[in-house]
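A.,

Following up on our hallway conversation. Structure tokens first:
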């Protein structure tokens, strides 16, 4: 009847370890992402806060805010993140309904590089001068699709080409070539040729409004592409503008179901299933009757042709994503870049977490072999690279390379210790020593002295030692540090260690306790104190069936030392500051109404505003370079220019504050009526004293 500690693998008697935790020990593979952008003429429609991605009368979008512009911004944001993480990441961009055919199955001689692709979209906007390029097209395969040269490392020219994408198809054209099914075929083929047999994290991202016809959704080539994506474990992410619902299809479950279906097909010819499906189709009733007769009970307006086409394509994409594995994100007026980040969160600035061997001492004389890995770490913006401009010695002008970019030289900082500020004689290494500042003096401490101080904490491995157990509520209500957290789990070869750690995690959960411990994150580092909280990956239903992809482990969260806490002086509240019962009630109800529920706040779905603004700024300067004068200016750009290109939003415009403001509007209005705001002039404000002003004095 109790909860299982670890699910067992039938037949071998071994314990199964969490698959999610196992990935912490692997070095992150390179990313290979193919972005597919729908450039059909319907993508020129305005995009705002209304249904189906359209604007509303109350909140009209800017003139330049179209479905395509939002799609390009989202792709550029993802490309910048891939480019910043590592130079080895690769990406490709495929443009559907482009009015021209240029891809790895039929290249056009006039499009040699990214610059030529940018020129094509700029010249052929709205179908102008398209005939000049179309006449040179020789391939009849996958027409009206333009590919950016295949999977390759990302460069600023890639971002500029994406920014220049425009709708070139004639709105009155009857051509159905260049649909998203053909885009999937090309993307799968490119991933297969470039990454098969190599370690890549493969993804295909489609951004479309689904309002163009699909030529042959059941072609053998599409089925072969789906099979190829399954074999390569490529995740398929579809962002549908105007789609009705989100869908998520786990890749592990699809692969497992695929193996089970193959076994069942060998033993069953499927004749009974066909009969049952036929009976179900005959008995199925329509969802609604579209007629104007009041006797029918339901009167619905006839949907437009574009709405019907979008609904049909949404069902088609659900079947494709369901077969491959991935998700469908419905964009209905929300920010497409933020929505895409919920599935592809930015990782630039994060550190790779690789678990290392660690000793887990859960009791005196009981030391186990385990693993220790960082769960959370601080995300920061990458520092700027300082380089010197190269100038022509004769003319004094900045030198440029063949691509027109400024030529720079790497710089480095060299420090030298001298005997005094007026002397240039360097102090020999043998006469140098470390020192600690004590007031205005420096206390020299030798290397051997430092090693002696650290000797009691030395261990050959990372160490986590349990020193006792505390009530969970006492720890949660105290001051938890917001530093890095660590995962403590069993090692690869120690069944004893995995079982003991999982049992300890289960016992802590059942007794509502936490383990008070000290942790050494490195061999020679000083220990930090904290608490071990019980955690579980997946679910534990007591039978082990729901733990095939998860298990129990421990999470370390640091606790502060006494010296880390500021000593607060407790003072009694004066009588004149005490309110009435109604005022106390208004305060309590407002606080309760503004509490953030779990369904409203998910840290994994919220991007860091500073990171997002920084990505937009970098993408802007990469796609729209500064002038030659501004590039070499010592003063740099004005602050208002930086804020403009970063497109930074105030916090009040983000989703969580908006949700909380709507939910607590009634309680906030009552609070304001009980405590009206009083405006003071500057002279009066300086003289006003508030309770608590002298607490720190």
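Then the amino acids I'd put at each of the 697 positions:
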């Amino acid at each position: 009847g109790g909860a299982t500690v670890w699910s067992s693998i039938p037949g071998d008697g071994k314990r199964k370890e969490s698959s999610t935790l196992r990935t912490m020990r692997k070095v992150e593979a390179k990313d290979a992402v193919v972005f597919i952008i729908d450039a059909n003429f319907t993508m020129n429609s305005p995009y705002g806060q209304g249904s189906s991605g359209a604007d509303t009368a109350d909140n009209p979008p800017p003139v330049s805010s179209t479905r395509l512009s939002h799609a390009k911004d989202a792709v550029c944001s993802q490309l910048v993140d891939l480019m910043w993480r590592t130079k080895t990441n690769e990406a490709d961009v495929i443009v559907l309904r482009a009015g021209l055919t240029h891809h790895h199955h039929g290249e056009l001689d006039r499009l040699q590089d990214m610059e030529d692709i940018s020129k094509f979209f700029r010249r052929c906007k709205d179908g102008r001068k398209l005939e000049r390029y179309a006449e040179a097209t020789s391939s009849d395969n996958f027409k009206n699709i333009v590919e950016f040269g295949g999977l390759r490392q990302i460069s600023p020219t890639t971002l500029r080409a994406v920014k220049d994408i425009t709708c070139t198809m004639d709105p009155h054209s009857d051509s159905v070539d260049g649909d998203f099914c053909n885009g999937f075929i090309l993307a799968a083929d490119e991933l297969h040729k470039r990454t098969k047999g190599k370690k890549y994290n493969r993804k295909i991202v489609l951004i479309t409004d689904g309002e163009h016809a699909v030529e042959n959704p059941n072609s053998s080539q599409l089925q072969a592409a789906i099979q190829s994506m399954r074999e390569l474990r490529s995740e398929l992410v579809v962002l549908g503008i105007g789609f009705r619902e989100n869908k998520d299809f786990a890749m592990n479950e699809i692969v497992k179901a695929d193996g089970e279906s193959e076994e069942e097909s060998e033993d069953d010819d499927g004749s009974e299933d066909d009969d049952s499906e036929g009976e179900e189709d005959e008995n199925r009733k329509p969802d609604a009757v579209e007629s104007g007769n009041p006797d029918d009970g339901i009167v619905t307006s006839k949907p437009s042709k574009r709405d019907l086409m979008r609904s049909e394509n949404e069902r088609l994409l659900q079947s494709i994503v369901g077969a491959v594995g991935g998700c469908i994100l419905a964009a209905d007026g929300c920010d497409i870049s933020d929505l895409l980040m919920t599935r592809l969160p930015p990782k630039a600035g994060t550190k790779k977490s690789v678990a290392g061997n660690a000793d887990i001492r859960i009791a005196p004389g009981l030391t186990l072999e385990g693993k220790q890995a960082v769960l959370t770490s601080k995300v920061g913006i990458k520092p700027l690279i300082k380089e010197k401009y190269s100038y022509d010695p004769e003319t004094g002008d900045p030198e440029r390379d063949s691509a027109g970019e400024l030529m720079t030289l790497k710089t480095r900082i060299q420090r030298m210790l001298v005997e005094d500020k007026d002397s240039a004689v360097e102090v020999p290494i043998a006469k140098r020593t470390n020192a600690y500042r004590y007031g205005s003096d420096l206390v020299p401490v030798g290397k051997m002295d430092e090693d002696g101080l650290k000797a009691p904490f030395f261990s050959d491995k990372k160490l986590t030692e349990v020193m006792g157990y505390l009530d969970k509520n006492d720890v949660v209500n105290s001051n938890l540090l917001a530093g890095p957290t660590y995962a403590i789990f069993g090692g690869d070869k120690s069944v004893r260690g995995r079982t003991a750690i999982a049992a300890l995690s289960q016992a802590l959960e059942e007794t509502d306790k936490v383990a008070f411990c000290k942790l050494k994150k490195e061999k020679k580092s000083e220990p930090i104190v904290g608490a071990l909280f019980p955690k579980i990956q997946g679910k534990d239903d007591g039978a082990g069936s729901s733990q095939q992809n998860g298990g129990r482990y421990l999470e370390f969260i640091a606790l502060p030392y006494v010296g880390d806490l500021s000593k607060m002086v407790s003072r009694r509240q004066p009588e004149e500051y005490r309110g009435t019962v109604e005022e106390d009630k208004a305060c309590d109800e407002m606080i309760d109404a503004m509490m953030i529920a779990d369904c409203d706040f998910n840290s994994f779905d919220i991007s860091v505003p500073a990171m997002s603004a920084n990505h937009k700024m970098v993408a802007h300067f990469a796609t729209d370079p500064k002038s030659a004068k501004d590039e070499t200016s010592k003063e740099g750009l004005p602050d208002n220019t930086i804020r403009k290109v970063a497109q930074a939003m105030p916090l009040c415009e983000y989703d969580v504050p908006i949700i909380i403001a709507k939910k607590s509007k009634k309680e906030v209005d009552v609070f304001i009526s009980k405590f009206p705001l009083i405006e003071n002039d500057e002279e009066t404000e300086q003289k006003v004293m508030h309770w608590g002003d002298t607490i720190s004095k």
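The longest strand covers residues 366-376. Curious whether your intuition agrees with the design.

B.
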